[in-house]
Design goal:
Helix content: 40-55%
Distance between the termini: 39 Å
Mean pLDDT: 79
Order of helices and strands: HHHHEEHEEEEEHHHHEEH
Radius of gyration: 20 Å
Low-confidence stretches: 1-21, 244-260
Shape: globular
Length: 271
């Protein structure tokens, strides 16, 4: 089974009906001009990121993916708050965080949830100040790939110049600031099993290679020291990947409560 990388060929779906265009403009106006939205996002963001920047990025996602315009506005705002709290900019071009619309049978409406990309997990791992370097790469037929465990662990990958060859492995590798390294390798048989298990999920259909790379990074994160933000991102992604209710924030009279508080409540409910 050949694994095809659609990630670089995906184009945003065009706006095909006038009603969707109107809905897109309405949601963009909502998130850009509601004062409480700006205030909540500003409070959640790191001081180094202007609130207008993340709101513009969210507005761009709505314009490029018309399905988002049909999501409940408060659900979409909650996803922006999640990105703000993690300090990750949304958008396909960056690959840190994606917005994914879905229909909730529980509340009988379309909601939006956050999907953390493998680049987002890598970015948060770097910020922990415990990881010296972390990468996720693809091994193709004809590459030199060597991995040895034991007293003298060794890990080498020398790619050739052709990027169109079939994929044989995907791996993630991290070197720690206190010394040592850890790695996680996914074989071709494991890749095929993962693709089969997740064949019904839209993100796996559109970006199979990116999702496989993310799986390698997720597994690697089980062994590296984690700071609270990386731990929060992993927990959010766990809930989103199971197609459960999104971490959209509960709306109070003065706006959404903390995404972290919402997450803690959901996790307690599962105990």
């Amino acid at each position: 089974m050949e694994i095809i990388d659609y990630e670089h060929y995906h184009q945003p779906a065009p706006v095909v009906v006038e009603q969707t265009q109107s809905s897109s403009k309405g949601l963009v106006h909502y998130i850009m001009h509601q004062s409480w939205v700006k205030e909540q996002v500003k409070n959640a963001l790191p001081s180094t990121i202007p609130v207008e920047r993340i709101l513009r990025a969210a507005a761009t996602e709505i314009r490029e993916n018309p399905k988002l315009s049909c999501c409940d506005p408060l659900s979409f705002v909650g996803c922006i708050l999640t990105c703000a709290q993690l300090g990750l900019m949304p958008g396909n071009s960056l690959g840190y965080v994606y917005f994914s619309p879905f229909y909730s049978s529980e509340v009988k409406k379309q909601l939006c949830k956050v999907i953390i990309g493998y680049k987002g997990l890598i970015e948060l791992a770097y910020r922990s100040d415990l990881v010296k370097g972390i990468v996720s790469r693809v091994v193709r037929e004809g590459d030199y790939f060597y991995q040895c465990y034991g007293n003298s662990e060794k890990f080498e990958h020398i790619p050739s110049s052709d990027d169109d060859r079939p994929i044989t492995h995907i791996y993630a590798y991290a070197s720690l600031k206190k010394g040592g390294f850890i790695s996680e390798v996914i074989s071709k048989n494991q890749m095929e099993a993962l693709l089969g298990e997740n064949k019904g999920k839209d993100s796996w259909k559109k970006y199979p290679v990116a999702m496989l790379r993310k799986t390698a990074v997720r597994r690697l994160c089980n062994y590296i020291p984690k700071d609270p933000l990386l731990e929060l991102a992993i927990q959010i992604d766990d809930i989103s990947s199971k197609n459960e209710e999104p971490i959209e924030g509960v709306i109070k009279e003065n706006g959404p409560e903390s995404v972290a508080e919402r997450l803690k409540k959901k996790l307690k409910e599962k105990e």
